[in-house]
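Task: sequence design from structure.
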């Protein structure tokens, strides 16, 4: 809760400096909507450093036994990134690019969990869910990608 006023202040200062709210909201939203989830995935468990690292490489194997809250959490890890990155960065305004970015970031998280022996299971299902969440969020924001593409044309027609 304490981070919300800070986020609002940062958003205001960025928008004031850049003269556009869209990029300021996207910047702050990407950071505040992604970093806490990533941080949470890298918190050590009770047996960190002692318990052997565990890996699950069979797709959809863990998904069957995974609690619903874990599934939702995995879908949300990169949802803010998937929703806002195409609005902020024109180069990311395609679902395949968002899927590639989220998949790569998710693989980095899973490799980190394994390498740092955080007493967590490095699972391919986590990668699939993280990536799917970003892709679904990107699809949800797709309607506003068009607005961004049309903005320069609208500005030129106003000048004419």
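Answer:
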């Amino acid at each position: 809760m304490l981070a919300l006023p800070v986020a609002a202040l940062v958003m205001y200062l960025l928008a004031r400096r850049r003269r556009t709210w869209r990029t300021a909201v996207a910047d702050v939203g990407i950071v505040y909507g992604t970093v806490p989830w990533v941080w949470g995935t890298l918190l050590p468990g009770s047996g960190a450093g002692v318990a052997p690292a565990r890996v699950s490489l069979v797709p959809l194997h863990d998904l069957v036994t995974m609690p619903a809250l874990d599934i939702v959490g995995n879908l949300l890890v990169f949802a803010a990134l998937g929703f806002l990155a195409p609005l902020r960065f024109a180069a990311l305004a395609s679902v395949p690019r968002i899927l590639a970015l989220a998949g790569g970031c998710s693989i980095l998280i899973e490799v980190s969990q394994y390498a740092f022996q955080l007493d967590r299971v490095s699972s391919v299902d986590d990668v699939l869910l993280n990536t799917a969440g970003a892709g679904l969020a990107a699809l949800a924001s797709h309607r506003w990608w068009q607005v961004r593409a049309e903005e320069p044309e609208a500005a030129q027609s106003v000048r004419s």
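The chain has one domain: 34-159.
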